[in-house]
Amino acid sequence: MKVGVKLTLYQLEVFLAVVKTGSFTKAGELLLASQSGVSHTIADLEKEIGALLFSRSRKGISLTETGEQIVIHAREIVKQMEKINQIAAAAKGIQNSTIRIGSFPSFSTNVIPGIFQAFRNRFPSVDLLLFDGSYTEIEAWIKSGVVDLGFLSNPCDGIEIKQLIRDPLVAVLPTNHPLAKQDVISIEQLEHEPFLLLKSGCEDLVISAFQEKAISFNTQFEVADNATIISMVEAGIGVTIVPSLILPINPVNVVVKQLNPPIIREVGWAILSQQIVPPIIAAFIKETQSWLEEAGF
């Protein structure tokens, strides 16, 4: 074989078609080419390689020893090229597309900006649309197709959730509260405190934690807005237990305490059960996971 052989993918495809069909004519039919075109391509290929690939006789054609050796590699080259074409096709499907994402407020505020920036750095031509709502709204959006993917905590029928992060709940107290000097507190210590219940979807975790201890809590107010409940604690109206993600970066006039035993909110990406994930969504999920790992979540 000559040094610096220059082969084309089409030559290898024609070669494999002849091997598969055992005939130049049938190979031409398979490739929608003429018999003479196939013969000419094989002749060019043999000339480039510097050896015959087929033995011709009245009984037909068969591979030569050189042809037997080359066919193995030709199949692998064509196979790998098919994979490259699949990747290229997937990339084309990602470009100039739109992803609609459902998220709840604390995740939208503290996590989504980083994820979106990381994704847009790699796929600048993809539009990202954010739908911000409650858990119930996100579930409805996923089921109705309003969003392509959502971020959720609570499991629900018909939706598959894959965990991404663990968000511990914390107790938030006024700075002058008697428990403010403790590093860690238990929910038993909050049994008789004026309690502010955050009604944003994670309240079931709080209620269950109290029920497991067979204790009640003195609910003063039920609050739906994250910022409002922190402001009410600052004003000394009561105490609360909330996910860490809802806290401002530098909370003032409140103290934040870890709970023992811990209460954890698990947050994950969510799609319809049994849904086939399109390449564009798979790319978004991959970037989300990478960014969360780098950010230390």
UniProtKB/TrEMBL annotation:
Keywords: DNA-binding, Transcription, Transcription regulation. It comes from Paenibacillus aceris. SUPFAM superfamilies: Periplasmic binding protein-like II, Winged helix' DNA-binding domain. PANTHER family: HCA OPERON TRANSCRIPTIONAL ACTIVATOR HCAR (PTHR30346:SF0), TRANSCRIPTIONAL DUAL REGULATOR HCAR-RELATED (PTHR30346). PROSITE patterns: HTH_LYSR (PS50931). This is DNA-binding transcriptional LysR family regulator. Pfam families: HTH_1, LysR_substrate. Residues 7-64 form the HTH lysR-type domain. Belongs to the LysR transcriptional regulatory family. One of its GO terms (molecular function) is DNA binding. InterPro entries: LysR_HTH_N (IPR000847), LysR_subst-bd (IPR005119), WH-like_DNA-bd_sf (IPR036388), WH_DNA-bd_sf (IPR036390). The keyword Transport does not apply.
